[in-house]
């Protein structure tokens, strides 16, 4: 049986220009042996030598020039040199690296980034070189390509023993597939290769049987083959241990054999999960000009005439042809995608090898993953021309250049390299006529295998043409290669791009039977930045885009001024309030957040009070007011710091009340949260009601109970809360009007981010605009003569999606910047201290005893109003009893710590006042002296009790605060955010104007109309979907409500401590 050399062709089409792989790092390749692959040492030597000297140097190093260049080696070299500077270096390789001896006058060298092999007859050129040498086998040798599981046990030998019986073989194959799928590290190389080899042997035996196997057997073979195929493609170590080419060839061979076994008629089609098999049989004189495959599916092959095939087929009576397609490229590690196919011609005994045919085989494959194609419109006036710039990165590319005029006139095109064509300087020229469909194929030969910038000049044949002519210009690049199994690399020999190639259909012409493939790549419209001055000089003729940009910038400046004033007002409202009626000696702190609703007239002018009731006591009634700012405005969030003498325990309820004063006393409360700043526990109170004599139930006083855990974690509550706050914060456009009241992301920053996103949207939209109309695109909406197609919607969505990286980067920076904290100097007490009198002394100590009595654990009753120093002595006796009670508590807890601290602060204040009080002015000096002595003793005892409880039970400090706090950026990152914002805005503005001037006035007007659709999608579709999506995620994950952990809380707490210092006359207690 003749052996067919399997090859493959890959067609790569790109629009505008094809991007080369990214350059590597700045460090040069080391000459040391730091690269090892499959027990072979690879040394990149940068010293320049001719080919003979390079070979001698490698031999002196104990090795030789690289001779093996297959796909695993290519993949290894690509990954190993990715971070190295190899773009300007070329490397000598050894003889036969392409699969056959190079000959006496042919030497091979290699370029990296991209990797390409080249031959030259000038072997005396000085280049770097790549040496290889085998390493001794050692357990310490690192193999970067073979999986660590490669040494595991091979598949069961039962498959090998069952090859003779196809049913037994398939039964064992299913068991082996089940084992491979459920075993970690499988499939290993041995198990994969043995599996497909045994399956191929069993399938080949079917050709020897006289009867056609039943469909169940055929489908079992297909399922087992596709099963191992997909498992091998998706194995964990596919990047470091790619599948061998022989594996794909055996899988391919199984499908070929199945098609041969099923040959029962002249024509049939066989579909499987990985592709399709088309098979037809002909008499040898009927095979010429036949079509294989499906023209309806745009995947077919047109064979050459019989005269071109006669020498290969005339000795056979019946010829069988097979066209086999694969949905995926069987060599994925070569970064090739798209549908591939192969053509096999065989007789009854073997396959017929066809190479160097006098006529070309035409191959057509569909492109299902086509992106939009870009083009440009140019208006030619008298004595003007169109100049198109194309950046050629791969000289093996074919450029398909199309110029469609609005009138049936001939055009002359000139091609030049390096500079625009002139009447005397150009490389090639042609005349395009209506009969030629105004298409020009610029082949690699015309490009002279030279990369760089090429220019195409298009103008009317008649230079005196005086009427305006509109040219629709589009271009893309394509390339045909085939996969050489022996060399395991892609080459272009014997294949060229066909003239019927379109962005939607691959057309290749080859003179041999190959495995064909197609792919497509699109670039934006190319704009020549060197013509900036020339294009900007046309502003008098085309001012559409400039006027639009000026209008947007004017609107931005006006909005920016408004945002500055709005931010100034918001900063005043953001102030966190320390309640003035907090007792100076109280040190247990609660942060109360009151959310006023967004309903009409929901704010209040009345005086509001609050009282907390906990499981261990209740607080005093506190007035929620701030002399420096208005509170309880519509949609506002007001935060107050309340201090209590002792922990209240679980805050079970709160009581809100107002005095119905002011011009608009009615108040709609949305919710209230109380955060224990010591334990960081947050209590939620869902109000959603009016406190008003005119609305709701007509009451101005209500008690609200803490929400249960299931109410807080309720999907409806979290979704509603996150959606409401999301539109005010996450929706960048809406948040300008009504942002959250407490956020570092200011209105000025939000307006600037919106402007930046608008400019980026315009730049991306104008660069990817003016695509060819897809006639098959369904019409979604028709309004008069305006039709909205699915193609229009997809272009807008793609432009919007490109905004996400910029959106996330800049907005996240501004949103995550910690406000710069500036230490505020404490306010000086300019007013004179109140004179110390007996009534004030009695009032202060009575208030201390009254606050302590609000906890049942303290077992102290509230004392009646004190009238004299005598009453003070009896009250001090009560305090003494309370100190003894605390002293007798053998187990300490936060309650006794804070109670003893509060009592100590009150006694220190009492002692300070008694010392200031003149005993001669006291009605009973004896009682005064007694009270002074008792106060001194009680202060010392209170200090001792507080110290004991503090040592046994330190005050609660949130240790997890650092781990639960949000990730804040330092304040100076605001400059980084502004730098990125201004830079991106400037670049976007520049390219938008450049494209606009290049398009011309008429085309710019059409672009402005289409821009509205993209903005509409961004504002009213993409942004709301993002907000709702985030709300759903939060609701499903039941994310807890974040707590306040910022510098402002620390500053307010410091204010409470300053009050305590002045109250006690001590720096610390």
Automatic annotation (TrEMBL):
<comment type="similarity">
    <text>Belongs to the polycystin family.</text>
</comment>
<dbReference type="InterPro" id="IPR051223">
    <property type="entry name" value="Polycystin"/>
</dbReference>
<feature type="transmembrane region" description="Helical">
    <location>
        <begin position="793"/>
        <end position="817"/>
    </location>
</feature>
<feature type="domain" description="PLAT">
    <location>
        <begin position="588"/>
        <end position="705"/>
    </location>
</feature>
<feature type="signal peptide">
    <location>
        <begin position="1"/>
        <end position="25"/>
    </location>
</feature>
<feature type="transmembrane region" description="Helical">
    <location>
        <begin position="543"/>
        <end position="566"/>
    </location>
</feature>
<dbReference type="InterPro" id="IPR000203">
    <property type="entry name" value="GPS"/>
</dbReference>
<dbReference type="InterPro" id="IPR042060">
    <property type="entry name" value="PLAT_polycystin1"/>
</dbReference>
<feature type="transmembrane region" description="Helical">
    <location>
        <begin position="1015"/>
        <end position="1038"/>
    </location>
</feature>
<dbReference type="GO" id="GO:0016020">
    <property type="term" value="C:membrane"/>
</dbReference>
<dbReference type="InterPro" id="IPR001024">
    <property type="entry name" value="PLAT/LH2_dom"/>
</dbReference>
<feature type="transmembrane region" description="Helical">
    <location>
        <begin position="751"/>
        <end position="773"/>
    </location>
</feature>
<feature type="transmembrane region" description="Helical">
    <location>
        <begin position="969"/>
        <end position="995"/>
    </location>
</feature>
<dbReference type="Pfam" id="PF01477">
    <property type="entry name" value="PLAT"/>
</dbReference>
<keyword id="KW-0812">Transmembrane</keyword>
<dbReference type="GO" id="GO:0050982">
    <property type="term" value="P:detection of mechanical stimulus"/>
</dbReference>
<protein>
    <submittedName>
        <fullName>Polycystic kidney disease protein 1-like 2</fullName>
    </submittedName>
</protein>
<keyword id="KW-0732">Signal</keyword>
<dbReference type="GO" id="GO:0005262">
    <property type="term" value="F:calcium channel activity"/>
</dbReference>
<dbReference type="Pfam" id="PF01825">
    <property type="entry name" value="GPS"/>
</dbReference>
<keyword id="KW-1015">Disulfide bond</keyword>
<dbReference type="InterPro" id="IPR057244">
    <property type="entry name" value="GAIN_B"/>
</dbReference>
<keyword id="KW-0472">Membrane</keyword>
<feature type="domain" description="GAIN-B">
    <location>
        <begin position="369"/>
        <end position="528"/>
    </location>
</feature>
<keyword id="KW-1133">Transmembrane helix</keyword>
């Amino acid at each position: 049986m003749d052996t067919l050399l399997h090859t493959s062709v890959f067609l790569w089409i790109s629009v505008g220009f094809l991007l080369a792989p990214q350059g590597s790092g700045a460090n040069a390749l080391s000459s040391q042996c730091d690269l090892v692959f499959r027990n072979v040492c690879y040394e990149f030597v940068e010293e320049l030598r001719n080919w003979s000297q390079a070979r001698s140097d490698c031999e002196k190093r104990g090795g030789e020039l690289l001779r093996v260049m297959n796909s695993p080696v290519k993949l290894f070299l690509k990954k190993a040199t990715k971070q190295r500077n190899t773009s300007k270096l070329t490397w000598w390789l050894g003889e036969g690296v392409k699969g056959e001896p190079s000959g006496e006058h042919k030497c091979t060298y290699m370029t990296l980034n991209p990797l390409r092999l080249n031959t030259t007859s000038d072997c005396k050129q000085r280049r770097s070189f790549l040496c290889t040498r085998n390493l001794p086998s050692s357990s310490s040798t690192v193999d970067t390509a073979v999986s660590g599981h490669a040494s595991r046990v091979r598949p069961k030998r039962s498959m090998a023993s069952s090859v003779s019986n196809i049913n037994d073989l398939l039964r064992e194959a299913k068991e082996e597939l089940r084992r491979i799928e459920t075993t970690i590290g499988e499939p290993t190389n041995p198990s994969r290769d043995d599996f497909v080899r045994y399956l191929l042997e069993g399938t080949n035996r079917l050709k020897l049987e006289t009867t056609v196997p039943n469909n169940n057997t055929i489908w079992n073979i297909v399922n087992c083959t596709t099963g191992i195929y997909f498992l091998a493609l998706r194995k964990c170590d596919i990047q470091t241990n790619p599948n061998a080419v022989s594996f794909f060839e055996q899988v391919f061979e199984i499908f070929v054999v199945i098609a041969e076994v099923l040959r029962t008629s002249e024509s049939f089609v066989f579909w499987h999960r990985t592709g399709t098999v088309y098979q037809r049989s002909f008499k040898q004189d009927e095979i010429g000009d036949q079509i294989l495959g499906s023209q309806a599916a745009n995947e077919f092959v047109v064979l050459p005439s019989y005269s071109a095939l006669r020498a290969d087929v005339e000795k056979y009576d019946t010829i069988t042809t097979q066209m086999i397609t694969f949905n995926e490229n069987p060599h994925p590690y070569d970064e090739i995608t798209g549908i591939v196919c192969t053509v096999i011609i065989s007789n009854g005994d073997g396959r017929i090898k066809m190479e160097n045919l006098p006529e070309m085989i035409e191959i057509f494959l569909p492109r299902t993953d086509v992106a939009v194609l870009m083009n440009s419109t140019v208006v030619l006036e008298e004595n003007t021309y169109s100049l198109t710039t194309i950046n050629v990165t791969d000289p093996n590319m074919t450029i398909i250049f199309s110029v469609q005029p609005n009138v049936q006139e001939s055009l002359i095109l000139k091609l030049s390299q390096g500079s625009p064509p002139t009447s005397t300087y150009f490389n090639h020229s042609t005349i395009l006529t209506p009969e030629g469909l105004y298409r020009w194929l610029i082949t690699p030969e015309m490009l002279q295998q030279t990369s760089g910038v090429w220019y195409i000049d298009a103008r009317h044949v008649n230079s005196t043409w005086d009427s305006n002519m509109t040219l629709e210009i589009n271009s893309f690049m394509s390339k045909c290669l085939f996969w050489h199994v022996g060399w395991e690399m892609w080459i272009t020999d014997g294949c060229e791009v066909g003239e019927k190639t379109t962005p939607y259909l691959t057309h290749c012409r080859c003179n041999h039977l190959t495995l064909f493939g197609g792919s497509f790549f699109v670039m934006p419209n190319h704009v020549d930045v060197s013509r900036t001055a020339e294009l900007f000089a046309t502003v008098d003729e085309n001012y559409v885009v400039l006027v639009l940009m000026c209008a947007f910038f004017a609107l931005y400046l006006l909005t920016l001024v408004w945002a500055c004033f709005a931010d100034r007002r918001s900063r005043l409202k953001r102030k966190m309030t320390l309640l003035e009626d907090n007792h100076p000696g109280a040190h247990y702190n609660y942060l109360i957040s009151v959310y006023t609703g967004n309903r009409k007239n929901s704010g209040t002018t009345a005086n509001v009070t609050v009282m907390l009731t906990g499981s261990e006591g209740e607080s005093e009634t506190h007035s929620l007011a701030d002399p420096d700012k208005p509170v309880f405005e519509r949609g506002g969030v007001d935060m107050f710091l309340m201090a209590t003498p002792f922990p209240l325990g679980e805050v079970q309820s709160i009581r809100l009340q107002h005095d119905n004063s002011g011009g608009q006393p009615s108040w709609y409360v949305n919710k209230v949260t109380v955060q224990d700043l010591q334990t960081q526990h947050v209590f939620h109170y869902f109000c959603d009601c009016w406190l008003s004599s005119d609305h709701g139930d007509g009451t101005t006083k209500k008690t609200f109970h803490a929400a249960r855990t299931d109410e807080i974690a309720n999907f409806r509550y979290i979704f509603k809360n996150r959606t409401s706050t999301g539109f005010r914060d996450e929706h960048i456009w809406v948040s300008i009007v009504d942002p959250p009241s407490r956020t570092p992301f200011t209105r000025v920053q939000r307006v600037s981010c919106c402007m930046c996103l608008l400019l980026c949207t315009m730049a991306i939209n104008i660069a990817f605009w003016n695509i060819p109309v897809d006639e098959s695109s369904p019409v979604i909406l028709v309004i008069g003569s305006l039709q909205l197609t699915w193609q229009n919607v997809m272009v807008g969505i793609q432009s919007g999606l490109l905004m996400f990286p910029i959106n996330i980067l800049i907005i996240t920076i501004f949103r995550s910047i910690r406000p710069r904290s500036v230490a505020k100097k404490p306010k000086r007490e300019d007013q004179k201290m109140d004179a110390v009198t007996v009534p004030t002394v009695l009032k202060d100590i009575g208030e201390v005893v009254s606050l302590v009595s609000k906890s049942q654990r303290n077992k102290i009753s509230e004392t009646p109003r004190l009238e004299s120093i005598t009453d003070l002595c009896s009250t001090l006796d009560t305090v003494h009893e309370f100190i003894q009670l605390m002293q007798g508590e053998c187990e300490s807890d936060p309650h006794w710590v804070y109670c003893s601290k509060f009592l100590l602060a009150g006694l220190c204040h009492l002692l300070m006042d008694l010392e200031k009080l003149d005993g001669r002015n006291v009605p009973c000096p004896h009682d005064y002296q007694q009270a002074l002595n008792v106060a001194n003793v009680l202060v010392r005892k209170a200090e001792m009790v507080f110290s004991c409880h503090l040592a046994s039970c330190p005050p609660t400090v949130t240790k997890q605060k650092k781990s639960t706090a949000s990730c804040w950026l330092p304040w100076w990152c605001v400059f980084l955010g502004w730098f990125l914002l201004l830079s991106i805005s400037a670049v976007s503005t520049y390219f938008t104007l450049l494209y606009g001037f290049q398009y011309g006035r008429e085309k710019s007007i059409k672009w402005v109309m289409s821009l509205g659709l993209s903005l509409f999608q961004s504002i009213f579709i993409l942004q709301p979907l993002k907000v709702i999506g985030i709300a759903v995620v939060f609701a499903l994950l039941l994310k807890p409500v974040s707590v306040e952990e910022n510098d402002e809380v620390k500053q307010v707490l410091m204010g409470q401590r300053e009050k305590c210092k002045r109250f006690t006359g001590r720096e610390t207690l």
